[in-house]
Design brief:
single chain; 716 residues; Aldehyde Oxidoreductase, domain 4; 3 domains; seven-stranded mixed beta sheet; 16 helices; 24 strands; globular
Length: 716
């Protein structure tokens, strides 16, 4: 009896390369002296194309000026899923580092073979600006450009070529995307035009679950320039010759539409009670059982914290272009996940996925799952009504603030016991929240906004939490990084979702870290222990201790002095417990309103690719968190979302931006990890702790508004 041979398992390759193993998916070298790089990660303003170009430059030994970073597209390039979770340098960067290391070796082998040097050790060959030379000699014997041949990279990566050591990495490169942006050259999708382009607008339901009961389509069709008016169930849209005419038609369409609405939303002012009263799916996130000789708690503490629903509040409303042909669809979008979007569009339009091409174009503002995917679906539906004409569809400000998925409201309850020596003996963390992920492409049922409004509607979905191994959702950072003798973390995902939620920057880490670091501060204050010392006595993680001590030193924590009405607070976390370490000291002024004067931040992202890029990400995340903590809260009554303008959903103004000082602790011997979401939890807690330092009032419910501070003071 014969048996089939057992084939060896392919090697595990780094990052996204493991699922996209062909070198030619990532890289092309051209005879004109340039290198084309394809990646599935997209530029969201975080500077990722620059960081990835630096990695390619370092491994191939060519200057960044020769590198052409191509926008992600389903027509070419690897499928790297969603650009999210601060994973781009970690996953795409490590993949490209390996791809380029192998490509360099392949081209050196080709040069050696051409020059009959095949028996010579390749280590004698060197590359300078794509020129291949004998090491130590200036004469060129070959070059990438002379050897350029696409067939050379039509092979799978082997994992057998080691990338360069960290010492070869360049760190001072100017952002590739900034010149266009500061000079006003068209770069964003909102600036994009195509030949024969027309304009579309959608009229969305005025409230979650509203049903269209009547509309006078003829009144809109009669307007000048209108090319098509579409009703598909409760989905309404219009296409016109130019933008002025389509906005006029959209307003008319909204005016003649009749909707049936219901009071289906919870009490905005009592969200923790609502969340804790819902049916839930409960799961133990993690636990450390008590030791046989567990210490007896001499003090017990408990407290509850919360955050409201948060909007993405992208500066520019979502926008997309779509061109529909009888057998194909092409979409230009600022989606964070082009392959995922393609999968959902195929379901909504009942088309094969391979008939749809999605191309990424930068948008102005993206902090998670905002309206980018939804507007692409709106554009595709309207493009189908005018085949052969590219349709550009932009949401209104009201659409962007009222219809995009929100960051989920959360409630956290903490309990702790402390022994007579001032050490935490037991810790209980419970979090209630809707799910934090409802991105396209992860279910057999599409989750795009229009999908549930069609004549043949798709079932409404409830947001999920990704597995903790993939970063988690509501439970992200609920597991303590500190050395508690006993701990338990539990997540309660609510099974009702009256308001649509999905991924917003840092997901559950923002509220969980806010709660943990505020609670530690409360315990330290009650015991009369310095907050920094209290953290350090419970933290053995050397890199965590290093960022805490660095931030404290930057802010002169040990000799800190504040004037009347000012306060300082400290906080720390490691994002997802697997990402960047970040510690923050905040200085606030507690006048009529809380004003954050300065933030000192120390961060460890492992091997640094571009120091300026890391600092940019840390600063941006910190400033956004200040806005969340001081100002932001989605407003709604029992029927409608009310915060659909900058007046009703204010964000931080330029005049309110604090000074931010960042210290990056480079670890060239460690792998690179992302920086984009490391600050959101620690900054929130540091500000809240500084408010307590200034006012003696512990505010446990975000935002730190005058109303919430007053309520906290009265409760005490």
């Amino acid at each position: 009896m014969s048996h089939a041979p057992v084939l060896p398992m392919p090697p595990v390759l780094p990052g996204s390369l493991n699922a996209n193993r062909r070198l030619s998916q990532w890289l092309s070298i051209h005879a004109d002296g340039t290198v084309s790089v394809r990646t599935g990660k997209v530029e969201l303003g975080q500077g990722i194309i620059t960081a990835l170009a630096q990695i390619v430059s370092s491994e191939l030994d060519v200057p960044v000026a020769r590198i052409r970073m191509q926008a992600a597209s389903t027509a070419a390039g690897p499928n790297e899923g969603v650009t999210a979770g601060s994973l781009s340098v970690q996953d795409s960067g490590s993949a490209l580092r390996q791809v380029c290391a192998e490509a360099r070796a392949i081209y050196l082998q080709a040069a050696a073979a051409r020059l009959q040097l095949a028996s010579r050790d390749l280590s004698v060959l060197d590359v300078v600006d794509g020129s291949i030379r004998i090491a130590g000699k200036g004469e060129e014997i070959a070059s990438y450009w002379a050897l350029a041949d696409d067939a050379l990279l039509e092979r799978e990566a082997t994992g057998l070529v080691a990338p360069k050591a960290a010492a070869g990495q360049v760190q001072a490169v100017l952002r590739l995307d900034i010149p266009d942006k500061v000079s006003g050259r068209p770069r964003f999708i909102h600036d994009m035009t195509l030949p024969g382009m027309v304009y579309g607008r959608a009229v969305h339901p005025p409230s979650p679950g509203a049903v269209l009961v009547g509309v006078d389509l003829a009144a809109v069709q009669a307007l000048p320039g209108v090319l098509a008016v579409l009703r598909d169930g409760s989905f309404l849209g219009v296409v016109a010759d130019d933008e002025y005419l389509v906005v006029r038609a959209m307003n008319k369409l909204a005016a003649v539409a009749q909707w049936r609405e219901a009071e289906a939303l919870p009490d905005m002012n009592d969200m923790p009670a609502f969340l804790c009263a819902q049916p839930v799916e409960t799961s133990v996130v993690g636990e450390k059982p008590p030791a046989a000789e567990a210490a007896v708690a001499a003090h017990s503490f408990q407290a509850a914290y919360s955050r409201p629903f948060l909007a993405h509040a992208s500066i520019a409303p979502s926008c997309a272009l779509a061109l529909y042909e009888p057998a194909s669809l092409e979409v230009w979008t600022h989606s964070q996940g082009i392959y995922n979007l393609r999968a959902d569009l195929a379901l909504v339009l009942d088309m094969p996925a391979d008939g749809i091409t999605i191309r990424h174009v930068e948008g102005a503002g993206s902090y998670g799952h905002n309206g980018a995917d939804d507007v692409a679906c709106d554009a595709a539906l309207l493009a189908r009504a005018v085949p052969g004409r590219p349709v550009k569809l932009q949401w209104t400000r009201e659409d962007e603030l009222g219809c995009s998925p929100f960051g989920a409201a959360m409630a956290v309850q903490l309990k702790a016991g402390v022994d007579a020596d001032g050490r935490i003996t037991n810790w209980q963390h419970d979090v209630w929240s809707t799910g934090h992920s409802m991105r396209p492409g992860r279910s057999k049922i599409p989750v795009l906004l229009a999908a549930t409004s069609l004549e043949k509607p798709f079932e409404k979905q409830i947001a999920i939490n990704m597995p903790l191994a993939n970063g988690g959702g509501a439970e992200r950072n609920a597991v303590p990084l500190y050395d508690f003798a006993q701990w338990r973390a539990v997540s309660h995902r609510t099974l009702t979702m009256p308001i649509r939620t999905s991924s917003l920057r840092s997901l559950g880490a923002h509220c969980n870290v806010f709660a943990i670091e505020s609670f530690l501060d409360e315990i330290a204050a009650s015991l009369g222990i310095d907050p920094l010392e209290f953290r350090l006595r419970h933290l053995s993680d050397s890199r965590g201790r290093a960022v805490l001590e660095a931030a404290a030193q930057m802010a002169n924590w040990s000799i800190r002095q504040t004037t009347e009405g000012q306060g300082m607070g400290i906080a720390f976390a490691r994002y997802k417990n697997t990402g960047a370490w970040c510690a923050v000291v905040a200085l606030i002024d507690a006048g009529h309103e809380i004003c954050v004067k300065k933030l000192w931040i120390a961060v460890d992202v492992g091997r640094v690719v571009n120091t300026d890029g890391v600092v940019n990400q840390i600063e941006g995340g910190a400033i956004q968190t200040v806005s969340w903590v001081l100002k932001e809260q989605v407003q709604f009554d029992r029927t409608r979302i009310l915060s659909n303008s900058w007046e009703s959903y204010p964000i931080l103004r330029f005049s309110e931006v604090p000074a931010v000082e960042v210290q990056v602790l480079d670890r060239p011997d460690q792998k690179s990890i992302g920086a984009g979401e490391a600050t959101h939890g620690p900054v929130a807690a540091a500000i809240a702790n500084a408010v307590f330092d200034a006012l003696g009032v512990r505010v446990r419910n975000l935002p730190l508004s005058t109303g919430n501070i007053t309520q906290a003071a009265l409760a005490e």
